[in-house]
Amino acid sequence: MKVDGKHYRSIWRNADGLSIGAIDQRRLPHEFVVATLATSAEAAEAIRSMLVRGAPLIGATAAYGMALAMREDSSDAGIEHAWQRLIATRPTAINLKWALDEMRRVLRPLPPDKRADAAYARADDIAEEDVGINEHIAQNGLPLIEAIATKKRGEMVNVLTHCNAGWLATVDWGTATAPIYLAHERGIKVHVWVDETRPRNQGASLTAWELGHHGVPHTVIPDNTGGHLMQHGKVDLVMVGTDRVAANGDVCNKIGTYLKALAAHDNGVPFYVALPSPTIDFSITDGVAQIPIEQRGAEEVADMTGRTRDGRIETVRIVPEGSPVANYAFDVTPARLVTGLITERGVLAANRVALSSAFPERIVAAAE
Ligand code: MRU
Fold first, then answer.
1. pTM of the model
2. Residues noted as catalytic
3. Dist. CA 330–CA 348, nearest whole Å
């Protein structure tokens, strides 16, 4: 995707062929800063600190983290150490484990002196595959928007999204935003209601920034506005991403997604979830009961960071000193509230039969 006319991905291999470049998402929307990750420890810290975030990008970063680790220690112990260090960074997005397992599967059978090159090659492929998958998600999700545009006789299609499931959360294109970008490119009138997504504000800071750079009409709304908009016919469909989909079709995504699904259900608004297949976890049979939900630091809720009117970036406290704070980063939307799953192999029903028929190879991988 383009930033001020220049093509960027969210992560890439630098010209030296060894270090990794990534957009520092902690600094957006106020500053566009590119970070260099030169060690596996830096890759792990980038995931932990949310310099990079979003399930597919976390997976790609972890893959490059394994490649960096193979330059540091390509022994069997080195593979295990890097896997352990990277898996410990964040608990909910299954793409992290998927990418690490995939790297380990490729690296283990090789002699140590061949592992670094092979690791970079597989990490490059994982990044490239993500882009290809998201292009298919774009094509598969487009008819959903087109159908509404036809029904509305070319009037604006209003899509509500939560968090950032845009190109910044993936390597390129995004998942939930991919069909939106394609619809916009094709000349369909589309407008996006962007949930601000407290406490980290991925919607207000990242999704709005992305859409703005692409000229996609959008409006940032406080998180609790969606229900009101749906009651008044101002949302045609909801499209969100996900960090993990259980075998039964339950969908884990950024905290607050479940409430949007409930409001959509109550108002007859279709609720779609876009995902690449590495986000499916066939080892989990009940998403609500079994998906681990990350709990993050109190400061993310108690403090807010932004730009002052005179241009300084400042953090201020908005919660009384001493008030306890809870910060659950994700929630799970039960499959019964999901209209469909937009994947690289088509739009699927949110249930075990549809998921396992479309992605049988992933069931085998989950069992290993
Ligand atoms: O905590 P984050 O910012 O990593 O959470 C990201 C999300 O919840 C996204 O919506 C999800 O990863 C889908 S991204 C294509």
1. 0.96
2. 243
3. 23
